[in-house]
Amino acid sequence: MSDFPAQADVLIIGAGAAGLMCAAVAGKRGRSVLVLDHANKVGKKILMSGGGRCNFTNLYTAPDNFYSENPHFCKSALARYTQWDFIALVEKHGIPYHEKTLGQLFCDNKSRDIVDLLLAECREAKAQIRTRCEIQRIEPLEGEGEGEGEGERKGFEVHTSLGKVVCESLVIACGGLSIPTMGATGFGYDVARQFGHHIIPTRAALVPFTLNKRALKRQADLPGTSLAVTASCGEGSFHEQMLFTHKGLSGPAVLQISSHWREGESVVFDLAPGMDLCNWLSEQKAQKPESHLHTALAELWSRKLVQFFLQLNGLESKPLKQYHESALREVAEKLQTWTLTPEGTEGYRTAEVTLGGVDTNEISSRSMESQKQPGLYFIGEVLDVTGWLGGFNFQWAWASAHAAGAEV
Ligand code: FDA
């Protein structure tokens, strides 16, 4: 006889960050919980996150670190399950961690520690988990039709490759579209549409830029080279590292600004962020008038980069004394407003997250329950809530999962 449960109080589809967290919270309330995932193992994105060390939260998490058509939506869940709550859980499990930069907390050892934490919490909550399970069909169950409750929804019947499950609450925790090879699908959006939800158009975010052939040829010597920049586009501006790649540009500054960028738009890079470069060049001229421009700039960047930036901007390198103040101002301006139009992005193949998703105007911000279908919940990345780079996306997964887990 199959050990596949035919009934559960709570059925969660997706055994990623949000699904496992929700299972633990709901199970500890005494609800019987079943988690199903089509992948061969749970938490694949957690395992590959943060370069294998999982940037599991950010000390400075605040609603401003998230993009959504409905920016107020995330506030309630983030306030009720904070970064400090997740840090306390990490400490309870004795997982060593450190702050890398900008409040980003990483495991000292491996991302596996976070998956093990979630699995231990699920075990304690007696939540059952099944992988390699394809979800075939979801049917809402009607009420008995007696008196007032006539037509009231009474849970769901979910048909899967492992069998049929009847549940009271159904939680969709399928994540977004990024990295299909890790098991990402648009299934969560399909379920949302099935129940009449609107989907905010999705796009790859936290993703490297690609450049055209000409630009790539110009930077052929630079892949692997990085420098601190401020990258700006639209209302976004990020001061972090930028990395030259064989396909274009990457690094935290580029990943961050990609969430603001739209096809055809330009991105402006300040290559000497936080500096008054014009003033600095004037000082260099006063102190070392015989020194060439490229020698002076080599105090800021590697010689390879200096050569690239000078060539790119059609600037010749002469002794500093030969530059009038206006010429130095022009050099500084060119280097502090390097404007570039990416050809595109690497797309969902390498994107860390998906912008857009299930419209949160149709979801309860307290419980994550659908306002269109009682008993149906959406949590994590499938919703139109997308964090900046730096641990914010996991914090959203934990917080939204906790909000739903307390209600399902
Ligand atoms: P998640 O993607 O974790 O889980 C969804 C689950 O649903 C998966 O297990 C999938 O197999 C399953 N599923 C999908 N379709 C299904 C179907 N049809 N049937 C059954 N199951 C299905 N964030 C951060 O805060 N810090 C970081 O360090 C990183 N690093 C990082 C690196 C890389 C390479 C990526 C791709 C992403 C990150 N992120 C990150 C983002 C973070 O991983 C992401 O936001 C969360 O994992 C989202 O959690 P969810 O539970 O919503 O989805």
From TrEMBL:
UniProt keyword annotations, A-Z: FAD, Flavoprotein
Residues covered by the RsdA/BaiN/AoA(So)-like Rossmann fold-like domain: 9-406
All residue ranges annotated as the RsdA/BaiN/AoA(So)-like insert domain in the record: 203-353
Cofactor list: FAD
Name of this chain's protein: NAD(P)/FAD-dependent oxidoreductase
Organism: Microbulbifer celer
